[in-house]
Amino acid sequence: MIALKNVSKRYPDGYIALNNIELAVESGEMVFLTGHSGAGKSTLLKLIAAIECPTSGVITISGQNIAQLKPAAIPYLRRKIGFIFQDHKLLFDRNVFENVLLPLQISDFDSNTAMSRVRAALDKVGLLKKEKVMPITLSGGERQRLCIARAVVHRPAILIADEPTGNLDAEYARDIMTMFKSFNQVGVTVLIATHDASLLEDTQHRILSLKQGKLAA
Amino acid sequence: MIRVWLMQHGIVFFYTFKRLASTPVTALLSITVMGIALSLPTGVYVLMENLQSISGQAAGSPQISLFLKQDAQKEDIDKIQQRLQEDSQIVNYRFVSKDSALTQLQQSSGFTDITANLTYNPLPDAFVVHTRENTSDSLEQWKLTLQSWPEIAHVQFDSAWVDRLNALLKLGRSVVLMLATLLSIAIVAIMFNTIRLQILTKRDEIEISKLIGATDSFIQRPFLYFGAIQGLSGGITAWLIITWGIAVLNDELMPLAQLYDLDIQLQHLSLQDSISLLLFSAWLGWLGARISVASHLWQIEPE
């Protein structure tokens, strides 16, 4: 599903964020990516979603080499991925419903299907009663769940989350992890970056740890 | 598929109106500026069109009067008529008999007193001819030919007057073209800036849309619609300004026309010209938005 070969990322100022990464994630797998902040977790996720380009190496998503994609094809790649951003990236001038609707609007869904899909996604994350609320009034945990709803509403094959439990207390964090597991159970490939070791204590899923831009097994 | 596509465009259209309505003062101001800018060249154009029609379309196809001799007989008239019919240079001609000429003269007020004192009809039979020729050289040539025909007393046209009016109209057209070009550039510039500001205020939305897989054309669409709709509104404003201007000028012209006993009324843009104005203004708005979008959207790349 996701394969990285000899992938390196060096920023213009000379900082090496990723160094020769080899990684393969199978379809339907759930993988955790750990490491200290600055270890390159976010960079790795952004490379997979073609938000940044690798300096060298090959990244393939379901058989497609994304370095060879034309700029016009990148939006269609991103639609296969649900991305939960570390900084949420919510639109604060739109209500909860409209925020979740956005991925469907951009990919030409007809409005009836879109409405029911948005409600289904909001229901899954438990925000159905708050669909008219503006995001500014939501708590941290609710905002995180709103991000998840927006990431899954178009039913992507891959779900990527960057520090999804960042500032949440343990109980909220567990709720959110349960949600990811349920998405994974219906066949979605899930990739979660986190530095929260407590999340990983009792997991049976694969854990990859990044240290100074390198993968340690 | 087409239904979804239409609906998508419909939604954007609706949102564009909503956005215009959300900042009514700004929107009204820029629409007014565009309307005034467009109304200047269009107004000059309207005045010129009226000038041309008031001057009896003289500039387009020159009118020549053939005056027959006083003693011209019916056969002579028929002969000349036949010759005119055969001449390929003639667009159309009209015979004005001496009797109808006198009646016309009597009817046009101001001459009533003079005609009442006439004991006989001093007017000759005449032909009014429109020709394809409109350069003064060829008209001069033509005059000589006509004058050599039998029973023709006098051939009259004022080629100098035609030339002068032509030159004047040509000048007017250049003025219209210059004004139109300059002000069109100004409108494109206004729209460029308006859209630039909009793109800046919608930075987050654009960035997030790109991140979740919006195509460039999806992101551009609302801005292009905005430009076209605002341009169109500017065109409508210009049309209304000209309507108002014509009404005011017509009011002013009325006493003047009465004094000189003339029937002068300014005409508005023709339907075709009105549609051209609206389409052109919409296109200008679209163009300004298009250039702005092309030069600013790429700067907003997700980090």
From TrEMBL, chain A:
Domain ABC transporter intervals: 2-217
Keywords: Amino-acid transport, ATP-binding, Cell cycle, Cell division, Cell membrane, Membrane, Nucleotide-binding, Translocase, Transport
Membrane topology label: Peripheral membrane protein
Sample GO molecular function, one term: ATP hydrolysis activity
Predominant localisation class: membrane
Residue spans crossing the bilayer: none
Keyword Cell cycle: yes
Family annotation (SMART domains): AAA
Subunit structure: Homodimer. Forms a membrane-associated complex with FtsX.
Protein name: Cell division ATP-binding protein FtsE
Gene: ftsE
